[in-house]
Amino acid sequence: LSVPSLRSLAPQLEEVGFVKIDVEGYERVIVPAMKAFLIEKQPATYVSLHPHRLSNEQLRGVVRELESICPFLYEADMLTRFDTSRATFQSHEDSKSHGGTDLLCTFSQL
Question: Which of 7, 19, 58, 94 meets the CB 3.0–4.6 Å disulfide criterion with 54?
Answer without folding.
Answer: 58
